[in-house]
Amino acid sequence: MAIFGTVEALKAQADNKRYGKVFDFIKNTDLSAVFAGMNVGDKKTIEIDGKNVYAIFQVYNTKIHANARLEGHKAYADVQYIFEGQEIIGYSDYANVDAEPEYNAEKDIYFCLAKKQLSHAVLSAGEGAILEPCDLHAPCMMVGEPKVAKKIVFKVKM
């Protein structure tokens, strides 16, 4: 089940054996320095524990809800952390998938449609979500008008 909240709330509810390296990285890294010089559309990947845990820094414009794609993963869980800005993330359980999606194993991603309406959470700077493989999600949706956001997506091998 997806978990949403501040880093402290995520840490209190998560399996810290699995996600502890993510929380340590957030606490002990100068995230501003990593984002320095990044512009809209830029991505930067940093390995934390090889391919077991890594971080994808991204700067993007939030999008209208109709352009958000529902996605899922099989090999990795996502920990999505908003560094700057705000976004809405839609989410649902895998049981809500309309049809068996085509899975891209190389990129560990599939896109799908939901049988029913998604639930939504608003994430602001300093907040995040833990999304395990059973948690479908449609990230990067705008709150109000499209705005620039800076987010880190941590990939944690399951």
Can you give a write-up of this model?
The structure is a single chain. This protein is an alpha+beta fold and 158 residues long. The chain contains three helices and eleven strands; from the N terminus they run βαααββββββββββ. The strands form three sheets. Strands 1-9-5-11-3-2 form a six-stranded antiparallel beta sheet. A hairpin with a 3-residue loop joins strand 2 (43-49) and strand 3.
What would you call the shape?
globular
Helical/strand content category: alpha+beta
Taking the sheet with the most strands, its summary is:
6 strands, antiparallel
Distance between the termini: 14 Å
Tally of DSSP helical segments? 3
Output the strand order for the largest sheet.
1-9-5-11-3-2
What letter string, H or E per element, gives the SSE order?
Answer: EHHHEEEEEEEEEE
The share of residues in extended strands comes to: 35-45%
Strand segment count: 11
Computed over alpha carbons, the radius of gyration is 15 Å
Question: Share of helix among residues?
Answer: 10-25%
Q: pLDDT average, as an integer?
A: 95
User: Low-confidence parts lasting 5 or more residues at pLDDT below 50?
Assistant: none
Descriptors:
single chain, 158 residues, alpha+beta, 3-stranded antiparallel beta sheet
SSE inventory with pairings:
Layout (H helix, E strand, L loop, with lengths): L2 E4 H7 L2 H13 L2 H5 L7 E7 L3 E9 L8 E3 L3 E9 L1 E8 L16 E3 L6 E6 L2 E5 L3 E7 L6 E10 L1
Antiparallel strand pairs: 1-9, 2-3, 3-11, 4-7, 5-9, 5-11, 6-8, 6-10
